[in-house]
Amino acid sequence: MPEEEPHAIRIHLDRLLAERGMTLTELSARVGITVVNLSVLKNGRAKAIRFSTLSRICEALRCEPGDLITYDPGGPGA
Predict the structure, then answer these.
(1) Which of 34, 40, 57, 62 has its CB surrounded by the most CB atoms within 10 Å?
(2) In this predicted model, what pLDDT tens digit does every residue of 30-57 receive, in sequence order?
(3) Which CATH number do you get for residue 38?
(4) How far is 5 from 34, CA to CA, in rounded Å?
């Protein structure tokens, strides 16, 4: 299996969930995405995200895409 290409995109799902007192399981039920797929996103292992998925997550967390995803060119793996 090829090694994963490093990237500078950071996902802040943990912080947003904590700020809203919501669990990954609760978010999963609200947006219709499996806990496994949300976990992949939360841990920064996702290679892509559909706009429809991003929209549902933002709606459930009452946030903007920029609250969830940021670009950090100097971060780990960049």
Answers:
(1) 57
(2) 999 999 999 999 998 999 999 999 999 9
(3) 1.10.260.40
(4) 24
What confidence score (pLDDT) does residue 78 get? 46
Residue 16 carries which DSSP code? Answer: H
Domain presence at residue 76: no
What amino acid occupies position 77? G
Predicted structure pTM score: 0.84
Buried b (16+ CB within 10 A) or exposed e, 4-39: eeeeeeebbbeebbeeeeeebeebbeebebeeeebe
Helix/strand/coil for 42: helix
